[in-house]
Design goal:
By secondary structure, the protein is mostly beta strands. It is 8% helix and 51% strand. It is built from 2 helices and 8 strands. The longest helix is centred in the C-terminal third of the chain and has 6 residues.
């Protein structure tokens, strides 16, 4: 589970740096929550969030369902039922027609470490095992 306030990890639907959605478990000052964040050419916005009940006692599963131009973001605790966090979210913002380019949208894992820790940018600055 994310340890520091601002840490988050989960799934991304990524077209480019300006067009994406994130479904993540995030550490906030109030504890852990499920967050859906998105960017469609402007600033990143919070689409939806839900408190995560007793996360230290559960395995959290995440799922993004893409249904044409609509996306659903869901989570489940252990082997329990899928709980929607946000449904019918505009997925067309990730399309080549709207976002441009030619590669489409990629789905994959995502993790972010809050500033002050070893996040993606800090990890890139660390030398590898060969000293480079």
């Amino acid at each position: 589970a994310p340890e520091r306030v601002g840490d988050r990890a989960g799934l991304a639907a990524f077209h480019d740096d300006d067009h994406f959605y994130l479904l993540a478990v995030a550490r906030t000052a109030g504890g852990l929550e499920i967050r859906v964040e998105g960017r469609a050419g402007g600033d990143t916005t919070l689409v939806a969030r839900a408190p995560l009940p007793a996360p230290e006692r559960h395995r959290v599963r995440l799922r993004i369902d893409a249904r044409g131009g609509a996306y659903d973001f869901l989570y489940a605790l252990d082997d329990g039922p899928w709980v929607p966090v946000a449904t019918d979210v505009d997925g067309t913002v990730l399309s080549t027609r709207v976002a441009g380019g030619f590669v489409g949208t990629f789905f994959g894992l995502y993790a972010y470490g809050a500033p002050g820790g070893v996040g993606p940018a800090a990890a890139r600055r660390q030398p590898d095992s060969t000293g480079r």
